[in-house]
Specification:
The chain is α+β, with helices and mostly antiparallel strands. It has a domain at 78-202. It has two helices and eight strands. It has helices at 2-14, 47-99, and strands at residues 102-108, 117-122, 127-133, 138-142, 147-152, 156-162, 178-186, 194-202. It has a five-stranded antiparallel sheet, with helices on one face. A three-stranded antiparallel sheet has the order 6-7-8, covered by helices on one side. Strand 4 (138-142) and strand 5 (147-152) form a beta hairpin. The longest helix has 53 residues, at 47-99. It is rod-shaped and about 140 Å long. The chain starts with a helix and ends with a strand.
Length: 206
């Protein structure tokens, strides 16, 4: 019993509750003039942060637009050059296809003539021909019935006739057994760069 009284006296001196007693402690009140701020209050963005974020987004969008426009311009330029080359290849493919049906050549322009003409006779007796118009840079083809546009934007068209050895040039239609067709075009986006394509075809009746 004496021990318990001694412990109680010691606890009272230290400010602790006596053994067996429950003490309720209340939180300290805030000082006057200091509003209480909840610990869980959400923190928002400042005006400066919003302005910085908007500026960064605007810069990124402008950079994307510039890159896309540059890429589209390059694609258009490349497509224009491809179209010009495709016109030239279309002419030589058409030439080979038609000359496979040729029985003989009836007329041919000089190899130095850049606005060339060529006429040939088919096995059915039809006369077909190609002709180049220098000013509009167009090639027309006559199928024996009517004439129509074959290709445009063709700078030059030349025909060269060869004898049976494939080496000796000739303009004598009865001696022509091989015909070479040469087409030249200018690339629209190539700053005056030209491309030349050519092909040869043998007369099948030979």
């Amino acid at each position: 019993m004496r021990t318990w009284h001694r412990n109680a006296q010691r606890a009272q001196r230290a400010g602790d509750p006596a053994p067996g007693k429950t003490v309720t402690r209340h939180p300290a009140k805030p000082a006057a003039g200091c509003p209480r701020v909840p610990a869980s209050a959400p923190a928002g963005l400042s005006l400066l942060e919003m302005m910085v974020a908007t500026t960064i987004m605007a810069t990124l969008m402008a950079s994307v637009v510039v890159v896309m426009r540059s890429g589209f311009a390059v694609w258009n330029a490349e497509q224009a050059d491809i179209d010009a080359l495709e016109n030239a290849y279309a002419v030589v493919r058409h030439f080979v296809q038609q000359m496979r049906q040729a029985d003989s050549v009836t007329a041919i322009s000089a190899p130095s003539d850049t606005t060339g003409d060529l006429s040939f006779l088919t096995a059915t007796g039809a006369t077909r021909s190609w002709s180049h118009n220098g000013a509009p840079k167009e090639i027309n083809f006559n199928n024996g019935v009517s004439s129509g546009l074959l290709a445009n934007n063709i700078d030059t068209l030349t025909f060269t006739g060869y004898e049976a050895d494939g080496v000796t040039q000739t303009t004598v239609v009865d001696d022509i057994q091989v015909v070479k067709c040469t087409v030249q075009v200018t690339l629209p986006q190539g700053a005056g760069v030209t491309r030349t394509v050519s092909c040869q075809a043998w007369i099948r009746s030979w």
